[in-house]
Structure formats: C-alpha cells, structure tokens
## 1
Amino acid sequence: MIVSLVLFVVLGLVLLGAAAALTRRKLGSSSGQARTAGPGADRKVLETVALGLQVLAEGRVRDARRLPEVQSVVHSGQRLTVQLAQADAAAPAPWTSDVSGKEWSLDPASLRAAGTSGGGPTHPYSLTVTLGLHRGDRVLVDLAQLPGPIALTGDDHEVLRLAQALITEVVSGPVGHLATVVLVGSATTPPVTDGLGTRSARLYPAATRKEALAHKEAPADKDSGRSAGASRRLFVVTAAQFRDERWADAPLRETDALLVLGWITDAEWHIAVHTDGSLDTGRLGVPVDTHTARFS
C-alpha cells in the first residue's frame, strides 16, 4: 500500500515536471515570436504616425491655414492624438478637435482613405520621436518644438541607451524621413555610436561645433518628396562638449534641436532617466512609464 502510494506520488511529480517543461517551451516560443514580430509592428505604428502628421500638414495647407505646433503625439492603437501648443479647433479631416481645441485625434483606420500627395512623408514634424510608453500608449514629442538645449540626465547607462534609441528612430524611422542627426565631438565615439541600431546616410559625425553648424541638409529632391522647408537637424553633444565649445551661444536655427547627454545648468528642458526605465520630463509634462530603449 505504502509502495503504491509512493509510486503514485513520484509519477505525479514526473507528470507535473513534464507539463511545466512543455509550458516553458511554449512560452519561450511565443516570446521569441513576439520579439521577431516586434520591430515590424513597431515600424507600422511609426508609419501610422508619419502618415497622420502628413495628412495633418497637407490638410492645413489645403485649407490655407498655418501649421500648428505639435507638442506631443500619443498612439494608443485605437486612436492617434496630437497635443497642440496653442488652441486651434480647425482640425483638417479626418482629424477632429476636442472642445478645447488643443487636442486633435483620429481613428488610424481612417488614414487609409485619406488622400496624400505621395512621394514620402513631407510634414515638418520629422524630429517627432518616441520617448516611451505611458499606460501602454506610445508617447512621442517633437524635439524641434523645444527651444534651447534638451538635457538627458540620470543614470549614465540609461541615458546612453535612451539617446541611442532616439537617434536610431530619427535616422531610420518613417517619421524622421526629412531629418538629419549630427553627432559632435565625443558623441561620435564608440560608447555612443556602437549602440546605434543602424547606419544611415542621415547620420553625420562632426569633430567640432563649427563643423557641425556648417552641415547642411541634403538638397530638396522633387522625386523623393523631400521638402527643404520641412527638413530638420538634431545635434547631439555630451555635457562636456556643450560646456567646452559654448553650445549655449550656438547660432541654431529655429527648426534645429540640441540634445545634450548629461547635466548642464543651461538646459531649457531636463529629461531625467530613472533606473526603473521611467522618465521625469519636467516642465514638458509628458508622463512616461517606460522609455523607448526598454522596448524598441
């Protein structure tokens, strides 16, 4: 009787172990599939954002209205929403405005029926880039709408990872089709460049501030849909380079953005990167639970 009971218990444990192993294999297979599908799904989201911004820009031009300043973009999967710096209720279809006029949104499915000029996204929001997720929604900001230096501060490793993710998305993603990134001085060294997910013709190294500011975007190309007025430049420098070369006094264009890796007293915008992956965006006021390098 006792022997039979022991054998029964042993057999039960063996069966439980086999079931657990099978479950782990299934989970491992599923997670592997998710990782494989991730980049493609991620790009589709960014393509939706790019198309939405293109439709917005073309609609405003068609209506002979000034382009709005888009501070942030949120993609929830079900809705694409832009937050405007100034209230404006005249949202071009298929965009619709809320009662305040500061938030426009649309159903991403409606973009398929919206006509565009073709030739690639020609919107002026090409420095709109993903900061991260908030409650599962993708949160993007237009760096060109942030005047003055933008400092990424906090844990050095997380700051570097976030910067690499931002740069990679700008130069390889569909939203940044008309943007170039200029890495300056120590930002051209392997600690920064080795972590970039791509090599792009829109990514340029420059040894000094003078060389960086002399860089011009590629000329407008009618066949590619490139518009000189929509081109943007993002300069990336370390905090030491910022101080040594007096970037606070640099004659940047109104459409340029300056990203500084590390703490500086001259920053107009501080984005603190925490070790848990969340961001404190300061007066920008955009909540981010998980920064983009953690999931991209």
Note: The chain has a mean pLDDT of 83.
## 2
Amino acid sequence: MIPRTMSTQHPDNVFMPFFARSSLLEGEDEVTEAFYAFSLLGIQEQMWDFEGKEVDNFVVKKLLENYSEFFASHRLGEAFRLTPRVPNPGIEKSEAKLLLETLQGIPRSADYAKIFYGDSSPPIFEVILPMTTSCVEIDRVYELYRKFVAGLQYRRVFDIKINEWIGDFEPKEISVIPLFETKEAILNAFSILEDYLQGKSFEYQRVFLARSDPAMNYGLISAVLYDKYALSKLSELEEEMSIEIYPIVGVGSAPFRGH
C-alpha cells in the first residue's frame, strides 16, 4: 500500500488540540498526535521528523504498547506508515551523527513489532532525506544503512557474530525518499533520481517535492510551476526506467503552509 495522505509534526492548529498539554507539542503529545492522525483522521502516513528537533526515538514501542488494540487490527508498516525524516549531514553539520542514530533505531523498532505481531515485518523501511541536491547524498544514506547498520550484524565481536549475540537486524535495506526543496533541486529531480536508480532493482521509488517552503521563497505561482514540471519529468522517467515512481507533494491546505 502506497500512502495517499501524510501528516507531519508541524501542526497548524487554530486551537490547541484536545489531547495536548501545552500549545507546544512535544514528547508524549507527539506520539499521541501520531495515533490520532491514524485513528481519528485516517491519515495513512506520519512523517516522524528528526530534522532539527528532539523527538521520541521509541515511538514505535509506545504506539504499540499504548494503543495495542488499534494496531493489532491496523498493522503499523502496512495499514499505516511511520516514516522518519532524517538530518542531511551535508547541510546540518551539528546534527550529522543523528542520522546514524536514527538509522540504528530502525532494527530496534523492527524488534518491537516482531514481539507485538509475532512475525518479522519491519514497521519502518523508508526514510526521508531533506534538502537533497544530488544522487550521491541519497546513495550515502542507502549504503550507510545497508553496510553499516544492517550489514554490521555479520561482523564478529570477540568470539561471536553480532547477530548471533543480539539478534538479526531487519530490514536488510531501506528505501530513501529524496526531498527536493530548492528551485534547482526540484527542476533537476528527474536527473538526480535517474542517476540514483541506475543499477538498482527497486520495486518502486518515492520522491518528495516541497511546495510550502518554495512558495515562501519563490512565490506561490513559481512553486506550483516548478513542481508541475518536476512531476511531468518524473512521469517520463517512470516510463523510461520501467519503475513505479510515487511522488509526494508537501503542502498544507489554505490558508496554512504554502499559500
């Protein structure tokens, strides 16, 4: 299931949400917000934003424990998705190591889900990379997880392999969703993605086009035209490479972000 709706931890609320303890949502309130986004609003995907903010790295554990009845019948990772937005080390130098910490939390979330559901089906298998400007940035995140998070399980520590000691690391690889936010990146999204997809056999690829920040930076009409151009070129790329490409357009409804 490819989600058709996404919400974020950037709530534009006219009034303070009924579940919030203060006007600034943080900590446990953000976990509760994710649950209500799924259960009350029917949002299919929640972006869990690690970029430039402190968030709960145990969100999967808390969702499954606190709302077990709901998630027992609505599987996290299938019926609903939780997708981390990770820092981009090329831009956010002070948050660079948080990228590795976030990726290392993915197998731990898979362990929680395995205990809860009784089988192996990781709830998190994609991450969003903000401010993407090149295929190299996407490949670095993809390979960092594949080789130095999941791949680390086959290394030996003293007399034993890591996975024999602390368990398997799932998933073995993740998908990286590039988020294009600048004019140049949006207009070149198709060529960046084309370079990234070379030699890979993915079932599909998701791509994120910003609309709210570009509207503030370049104007509403310009931002709309940039995204329309990018969507057209991505459609051509989809046919050319015979891979399903599912775009995400990041914009809030009027009169909020991006208008």
Note: The first helix runs from residue 28 to 39.
